[in-house]
Design goal:
CATH class: Alpha Beta
CATH topology: Rossmann fold
CATH superfamily: Response regulator
Number of strands: 5
Structural class: alpha/beta
Number of helices: 5
Strand content: 15-25%
Helix content: 40-55%
Largest sheet: 5 strands, parallel
Order of helices and strands: EHEHEHEHEH
CATH architecture: 3-Layer(aba) Sandwich
Length: 131
């Protein structure tokens, strides 16, 4: 398992637990329930290579969090995930936060899980090559 970690940020505890259960055999997963907690983790942990952010969270949404991450930790690969990926959300994410990828919250069938793992693996390799 790579030492580079994946930070997964979502305000829904069930979504966080599902993501961790599905992906912890493949990646070192760090969970945060808010943008604030994510920033605290990023301030302490230098081995975060990918941040997977829910776009809709209270207080600090995923786009705002992505902008802060991009400014403070430019090498971290940012993936936005959401259940409602509208074209306007995609455009806003690209223009404001310069995200590296998008994932839809989908049912946890093996095909969907494989797609998520592939995207994260690609982003981790890119991060490790930059470091």
């Amino acid at each position: 398992m790579p030492t580079t970690k994946v930070l997964f940020v979502d305000d829904d505890e069930q979504v966080r637990e599902s993501f961790e259960f599905a992906h912890s055999p493949y990646f070192n997963i760090v969970l945060a329930d808010s943008g604030k907690q994510a920033l605290e983790i990023l301030g302490k942990d230098l081995n975060i290579g990918v941040a997977v952010l829910d776009i809709r969270m209270p207080k600090m949404d995923g786009i705002e969090l992505a902008q802060i991450i991009r400014e403070s930790w430019p090498d971290i690969k940012i993936i936005i995930h959401t259940a409602n990926m509208s074209i306007s959300s995609v455009v806003e994410s690209i223009n404001l936060a310069q995200v590296d990828g998008f994932l839809e919250k989908v049912a946890h069938d093996e095909d969907a899980l494989d797609k998520v793992r592939t995207v994260i693996s690609l982003r981790l390799r890119e991060f490790e090559h930059q470091s």
